[in-house]
Amino acid sequence: MAANERRAKLIPNYVYFACFAILILVISIAPVQPNLWDTFPQTLFAICFATLIRAPWVVPYWIIAIIFLLRDILYFQPIGLETFFVLLLLNTVKNARRGLSETFFREWSSFALAVTMLYLCKVLALLLLITPEFELLVVTRSILASIVIYPIITGTLALVFGLVRQLPIERAI
Fold it and tell me: Could you identify which of 22, 39, 82, 102 might form a hypothetical disulfide with 141, taking C-beta atoms 3.0 to 4.6 angstroms apart as the criterion?
């Protein structure tokens, strides 16, 4: 009985997250300015990263997989490549989230490392598959844009959805 009540409370969270992620996907492929999205930051990855640190029960892996597979299809990327790396990194983050959420600087630097690893793994995998080369400047701009936008995303999650970092003392209670 308690499990059904808990599941019923989580379903709206799943729907909110999925709608928010799809909204970001639609905005990112909108034909505003073609040059603007060349260095589009990893906004979805940042949202998933911040949400997993703050409230891991809000974002199940199957929703993340569906959103990132949809992203691969919409961006004409190899289907499942980035999704695999994202799920691998987010699983690592979820397992180490207690140590990451002690200070915001630690969380932010962990995100910077994770987004750099995501791009590095993606570029190396595509180079091994003999696809066209990446421009180092575009990849570097995307990494820096992702790192810079992370505090904005965490602030938005805190203001709009109320997802704030829990201190270690609050988790123990």
Answer: 39
In order along its 173 residues, the chain shows pLDDT tens digits of 566 666 666 677 778 778 878 887 777 777 665 544 455 678 889 988 988 888 887 788 888 899 889 888 888 888 888 899 999 998 888 888 777 767 888 889 999 999 999 988 888 888 887 776 667 788 888 889 889 999 998 888 888 877 777 655 554 44
Cα torsion 110, 113, 116, 122: sign: negative
Selection from 111, 104, 137 nearest residue 123 by Cα: 137
1-4, Cβ contacts within 8 angstroms, sequence gap of 24 or more: none
Q: Which two tokens stand for residue 18?
A: 């999925």
Q: How far apart are CA 126 and CA 81, in angstroms?
A: 9
Return the structure tokens found at 2: 């308690």
> Hey, CA dihedral for 106, 28, 143, 91, is it positive or negative?
positive
Distance of CA 2 to the CA centre of its chain: 30
